[in-house]
From TrEMBL:
This is Flagellar protein FliL. Controls the rotational direction of flagella during chemotaxis. Coiled coil: none annotated. It comes from the Bacteria. PANTHER family: FLAGELLAR PROTEIN FLIL. The chain crosses the membrane at residues 17-40.
Length: 159
């Protein structure tokens, strides 16, 4: 008889265990679905970014630069062709004429930055990107925060 009295007590314990296991599995499934949708499904911000594709700005060629680099010994030089992307989508001849008048100032700023660099600064893509960013910040600081959008090196040779 002692065995039959213990048997009913085990059943409620098994039922409680089953309920807990089912609840944990259901919670895990809900979390897994949430994580899946968060990481796999396209978000609305990514969709908006692809829909709002930026049109290229007007390109303004600054010209060729040949300068000594800041390497020890002063025997290294850089030759680069620089083009600026303006923060305008349509060509405005009046604004381009203003920029042409200011070209000596623009070239001076770029030349000062380029001549302060070493070959190590220019060897990697990351290094060249830093130099481009430095040029962009300096020119936007000089001519207005939204004047230039990007800097391009169409030719770059260092020796």
């Amino acid at each position: 008889m002692a065995e039959t009295e213990n048997a009913p007590q085990k059943k409620p314990m098994n039922v409680k265990l089953i309920v807990i296991v089912v609840a944990v599995l259901a919670a895990a499934a809900i979390i897994a679905v949430g994580v899946f949708y968060y990481f796999v499904s396209p978000s609305t911000s990514a969709t908006n970014k692809t829909q709002a594709v930026r049109t290229p700005g007007v390109l303004f060629e600054i010209g060729d630069f040949t300068t000594n680099l800041a390497d020890p010994g002063g025997k290294r030089f850089l030759k680069a062709k620089v083009t600026m992307e303006l923060n305008e989508e349509k060509k405005d001849e009046k604004k381009l004429a203003e920029l042409k008048e200011q070209l000596p100032i623009i070239r001076d700023r770029i030349l000062n930055i380029l001549s302060s660099k070493t070959v190590e600064d220019l060897q990697t893509n990351e290094g060249r990107d830093k130099v481009k960013k430095e040029i962009l910040i300096a020119l936007n600081k000089q001519f207005g925060a939204d004047r230039f959008r990007n800097v391009y090196f169409s030719d770059i040779v260092y020796q």
